[in-house]
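Hi R.,

Here's the chain you asked about this morning:
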Amino acid sequence: MLAFHMVLRDILRHKLRRALRSKVTLVALFVVAAWFFSATLFYYTEHVLNNRSEIDFVASLYWALITMATVGYGDIVPERGPGWAVAALTAVIGIAVYTLAISVIADEFMEASLKRSLGMAPLKNKRIIVIGDTDACRDLIDELVKNRLGSHVGWLVSNKPESEPPVDYLIGSPMKRSDLLKAGIDRAEAVALCLGDDSKTLHVALAVRRLNKRARVVAVVESGEAEDLLREAGVDHVVSSRLLGRTLASAVFEPWVAWFIEEAVSVEGVADVAQETVPPRHVGRSVEEYEEDIARRNGCRALILAVVRSGKPLLAPKRSMRLEPGDVVVYLCARKDATAA
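And the predicted structure, written out as tokens:
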């Protein structure tokens, strides 16, 4: 119990120290102090000196707040003498305090906005963190934005982007733990690594896994050796340059296969390949029935390509196959205007 109290005391002391370093907190404390100071003067002059029993300290607090705001309802007014002097002083204090508070708050907002525009502000509440400066990173971000995930994406880059990106970004080094934490790696749901250097990718992947064991990590690599090492390091999915080679081969010998791949992976294509977990209300339905539900929800022609059950993909499932709890379906959703009648 003693250890718990000591830990709690240290946490509260740390929080208080951080709060006192904030200009907004200091101004708020100054406003409260000025308010109580004015209320105390009014209570002394009216209740103590002028023997006004109806003026208690609560009424004095109310009067001080209204007077500092220069509203002055007139329901409580001071008597001649010291009371008038206190009222004048309170009005002047109120004008000064509110002016100071507004200027400090506006300055804080401007500073935060400037830091954000320069890539200096920490990334907050970002579900997806992209790390790297390569063109693959920019293509990934553009695709996420097209999927309406832009507000959930943060980008950690080592240099300021040439053009303003459509997502919030932070300029820092992915090799530094402090910059990874500043980017919100420890709270992210997914992390994408597109660094263009396999050794850096492996180093950052290990650092990310140490900071966040729950996030889904994907990476782009050049060599097959790095691909194996990254999988051993706990990266969930690795995209290698070999995939590019296979796509190029398809473009040479099977051009329509390459066309289909390009269209299917882009949300702006005539078709889109996507996945979703079967919700409990659809458990027990057939693949054919679930296809009809997907088509109705998305306004497209749907075709289920695979059912992932217990981590094992079942390709081209029978249309009569019944879905079970935890199943994930991978489906093709083709626009109706791109399909035959």
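The beta strands are 128-131, 153-157, 168-171, 190-193, 216-221, 237-240, 271-277, 300-309, 312-315, 328-335.

Let me know if you need anything else.
M.
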